Amino acid sequence: MVSSGLLLEGVNLMLFGMGFVFLFLTALVGVTSTMSKVVNRFFPDPLPAAPAPKAAAPAATASGDTELVAAITAAIKMHRNKL
Question: Which domain holds residue 39?
Fold first, then answer.
């Protein structure tokens, strides 16, 4: 009969401990949510800056540019054919 008393006391202690942890975690979630709302209200995120317009690429008018583009294109084709 003594062991059943110890068993009931252990179950009682377990329920008390689990209840305390549950209450603590519930309070922690509430405090964290409230703190997040307060911080977002007084310190809102800054609006993102508008993206800068992209500059157009210069046209290949010089003969050196067209030769360079042709060489790069040929190198890319050779590399892709090796794979």
Answer: 1-44
Determine the Cα–Cα distance for residues 3 and 9; give it in Å rounded to an integer: 10
Per the listing, tokens 């179950």 go with 11
Do the domain assignments include residue 37?
yes
* C-alpha to C-alpha distance for 62 and 39, rounded to whole angstroms: 58
For 34-60, the pLDDT digits (tens) are 999 999 999 888 878 777 777 666 554
- Cβ partners under 8 Å of residue 82, min gap 6: none
Position 52 in a domain: no
Long-range contacts of range 64-69, CB-CB < 8 Å, 24 or more positions apart? none
